[in-house]
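Deliverable D4.2, example record:
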Amino acid sequence: MNNKILLENLRCIPDFPQKGINFRDVTTLFKNPECLQIMEKELYDMYKDKGITKIVGIESRGFVMSSALALRLNAGVVLCRKPGKLPAKTVQESYTKEYGTDTIEIHEDAINENDIVLLHDDLLATGGTMKAAYDLVKKFNPKKIYVNFLIELVHENLNGRECFDKDADITSLIQI
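Output generated by the structure prediction step:
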């Protein structure tokens, strides 16, 4: 979609968190009401007819738009967090990411077989975190899983989409 206003308001921070990485900072989109409205509208238009019942927001930037969109779609929000942050019994998935190894988890009662789930995060680079979230949600056997990012980095060395199943339904608002 590459909305001009979103692109103009997206901040790039060179050499963060390490040298050679150009970090795409979505907080500049979140603080701008016009950008928030554009993102919410574009996400709503993408998913309004999909029957979404749960939106899984990936810690922590994924929480922002997953909550806004859930209100609009009349869906629930499921938090996907790092270990030890959720109070009830959880299901976990470990994975390798750009900067090392990590684990994510969600409550064991958060999703069921009747749910249609949208996984949402801010950025697709190598895909490690979202692939782990995708695999984690698959354990619950929902009817359908959609995957969405605000930003997708399209670069020959990243290939984030390639780590997902070929039939995974993946969308992004901005491709860079």
